[in-house]
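Re: that backbone. Tokens:
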């Protein structure tokens, strides 16, 4: 029997309601499969600040590092007066400790929730199913930063740095993922004006030769942003640098009209990772907390990503995805967002239904 040690922290506001559904999910998987999950729950973000004065205790970080992966449910909007007391400190500490380097964010539109999309039905009905593969090691976000006083007053700079090794890691992941999907990678850059993007395009094109069955399309980021609004069906795997991916991944989630439906994986080179819902800071978290209205599909799909990428168990990931699809076919949603024809249930009821779908499938195998 395989055993997987996983860390789970609720974070802020709706995080507690969301992660509560994960314990049901993992229990259901244990009942169906010869597998065991050793779960390490810990407190982080605002509750941790209130309890011990820091958003993430060092002892909890050390324990989490001994796990295959960690799931963080939600980060609140309130920033602490000190860095260690800000909710985002918990996330940044986990990212740094796990040394994550590639972000995976899938998004799709199902006929069940198609009415939520802000795009015209003539566009959504052509199909939207996109996997965003974003680098986390390079770019301005991770690069050298400088703030100083100059001749013109205060000045600041952020270094947009890339090397071939950084580009190669996420590019290999994108091409490999495309082999299991519709065999197309769209690599986004600004190679007409940025030296870092010219390196990006050169290296991605070079690596493409190792994947003859996959089609590569290079696109400028501004054109890709427009195409996502008018022809999202033309994208399969979207490969991006750090800054461009930070923006485009949110655009992809928002065109579905249901960004709370999906998960996000931040993977290290050794396969371990930090997992969160697609929208880590839930935009209505404080408003929905404690009311049983937040939708758990995103946190459940996050668990599916974890099972696939950090546990190496696509069979378990597919079982979770089938359970989600079963609930969707029943049109079960919470009051957070109700597409046309939806049946409104509570967070707990929907989480229990998904877990039950896993258990009940055992009798049909």
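Recovered sequence:
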């Amino acid at each position: 029997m395989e055993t997987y040690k996983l860390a789970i922290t609720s974070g802020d506001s709706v995080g507690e309601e969301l992660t509560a559904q994960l314990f049901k999910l993992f229990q259901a998987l244990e009942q169906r499969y010869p597998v065991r999950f050793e779960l390490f729950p810990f407190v982080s973000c605002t509750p941790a600040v209130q309890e011990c004065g820091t958003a993430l205790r060092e002892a909890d970080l050390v324990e989490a590092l001994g796990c295959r992966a960690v799931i963080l449910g939600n980060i609140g909007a309130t920033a602490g007066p000190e860095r260690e007391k800000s909710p985002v400190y918990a996330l940044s500490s986990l990212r740094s400790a796990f040394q994550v380097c590639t972000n995976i964010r899938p998004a799709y539109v199902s006929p069940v929730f198609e009415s939520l999309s802000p795009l015209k039905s003539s566009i959504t009905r052509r199909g939207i199913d996109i996997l965003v593969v974003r680098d986390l090691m390079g770019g301005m976000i991770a690069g050298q930063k400088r703030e100083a006083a100059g001749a013109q007053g205060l000045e600041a700079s952020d270094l947009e740095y890339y090397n071939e090794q950084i580009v190669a890691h996420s590019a290999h992941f994108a091409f490999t993922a495309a082999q299991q999907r519709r065999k197309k990678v769209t690599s986004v850059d600004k190679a007409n004006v940025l030296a870092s993007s010219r390196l990006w395009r050169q290296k991605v094109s070079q690596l493409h030769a190792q994947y003859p069955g996959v089609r590569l399309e290079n696109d400028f980021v501004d054109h890709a942003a427009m195409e996502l609004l008018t022809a999202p069906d033309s994208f399969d795997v979207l490969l991006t640098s750090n800054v461009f991916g930070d923006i485009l991944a949110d655009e992809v989630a928002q065109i579905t009209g249901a960004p709370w439906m999906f998960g996000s994986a931040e993977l290290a080179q050794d396969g371990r990772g930090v997992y969160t819902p697609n929208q880590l800071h839930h935009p209505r978290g404080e408003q929905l907390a404690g009311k049983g209205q937040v939708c758990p599909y995103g946190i459940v799909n996050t668990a599916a990503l974890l099972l696939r990428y950090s546990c190496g168990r696509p069979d378990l990931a597919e079982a979770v995805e089938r359970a989600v699809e079963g609930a969707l076919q029943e049109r079960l949603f919470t009051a957070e967002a109700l597409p046309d024809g939806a049946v409104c249930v509570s967070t707990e009821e929907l989480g229990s239904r998904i877990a039950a779908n896993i258990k009940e499938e055992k009798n049909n195998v």
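The mean pLDDT is 95. DSSP finds 14 helices and 14 strands in the chain.
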